[in-house]
Specification:
Largest sheet: none
Order of helices and strands: HHHHHHHHHHHH
Helix content: 55-70%
Number of strands: 0
Radius of gyration: 21 Å
Number of helices: 12
Strand content: under 5%
């Protein structure tokens, strides 16, 4: 999930008298007691930010769960148990809360590193000023235009990252996402950290370093969260003529079938135009996808085991 605007690392928004970074006006030769207090503040701030992130996810999760439970009751793509009774619900819940949390901190860290290495921006105040409203030509566009640019460009780049992960060398990481045999809205966050880092996180950071304002995340974040849950939902919605414009549940559920069916198609996350342009669009008439998962009898079910498994292959 994209980070909300200005949700930088806590030290960047700490009071000026607690910062010790040279560029922010502090002193690296501060007394040991002061350094310890700042280190303790940093340590506790990480937990505070993590707690805030998880608390924000809880109402979103409840709302999505209720909405899709009701919709599935009337428009299920595949018959079966409700999402909260699926076999790997505990595993999916772990991914749903932990992966966005980890991605947030990694994204912020890469933004700080990128600003330092590429633009020689150092210190808390300088970083906040640098990122606050974006920079360069892209930041001169209206915020809605920046958000639209972010969505289109990121979706195009992620289309190719997605195809890359279906290759022989990286499939072991992406197989985590395809391992669910009961695909539903909460399956949306089931991604290996490597897949998230060299994919969504990298693209997000690149676009923000290109000058787009982080304020677009106030719009893009909720949209991508809802859209990702929607395309994974157990719904028989093809979207009719709009299936060529926006990705829907049936479009993406075909992608979760085996490779000899639709598993080698429909790589776009939001805009199917990329699949249409590059010959990977697959939406057979009067047919619904009905079998999901991967061909690996040894693939583990638990969250921790799935994180480790690709490194053993």
């Amino acid at each position: 999930m994209p980070i909300p605007a200005r949700s930088f690392h806590p030290i960047l928004t700490a009071p000026a008298d607690t910062r010790l970074t040279g560029a922010a006006g502090g002193s690296r030769s501060a007394p040991a007691g002061t350094r310890f207090r700042v280190m303790l503040f940093e340590f506790l701030s990480v937990f505070a930010v993590a707690g805030q992130t998880l608390l924000k996810l809880v109402p979103v999760t409840i709302a999505l769960g209720v909405v899709f439970a009701m919709l599935t009751r009337w428009s299920a793509c595949n018959p079966g148990r409700p999402w909260w009774r699926k076999n790997e619900i505990v595993t999916d819940v772990c991914y749903w809360f932990l992966i966005p949390l980890g991605a947030r901190f990694v994204r912020i860290g890469l933004m700080v590193m990128g600003a330092a290495l590429i633009f020689d921006i150092h210190g808390a105040d300088a970083l906040i000023k640098f990122y606050d409203n974006g920079f360069g030509p892209l930041a001169q566009m209206p915020l809605w235009a920046q958000a639209l640019t972010f969505l289109i460009v990121s979706d195009f780049l992620l289309y190719w990252f997605h195809r890359w992960y279906h290759g022989a060398h990286l499939w072991k990481y992406h197989a985590v996402h395809h391992s669910s045999q009961e695909v539903d809205w909460i399956s949306a966050a089931r991604f290996h950290p490597v897949n998230i880092l060299f994919g969504t996180v990298l693209v997000d950071v690149a676009l923000l370093l290109a000058g787009i304002s982080p304020n677009v995340m106030l719009w893009v974040g909720p949209f991508t969260t809802a859209s990702s849950a929607f395309v994974h939902a157990n719904l028989n919605w093809t979207l009719g003529p709009f299936k060529y414009v926006m990705a829907g549940p049936v479009f993406h559920r075909w992608h979760h079938t085996h490779a000899d069916r639709g598993g080698s198609s429909n790589f776009a996350g939001t805009f199917p135009i990329w699949d249409i342009l590059f010959g990977t669009f697959y939406m057979p008439e009067n047919e619904l996808p009905d079998a999901y998962g991967i061909d690996d009898a040894h693939f583990p079910q638990g969250f921790g085991h799935q994180i480790i498994y690709p490194f053993t292959q």
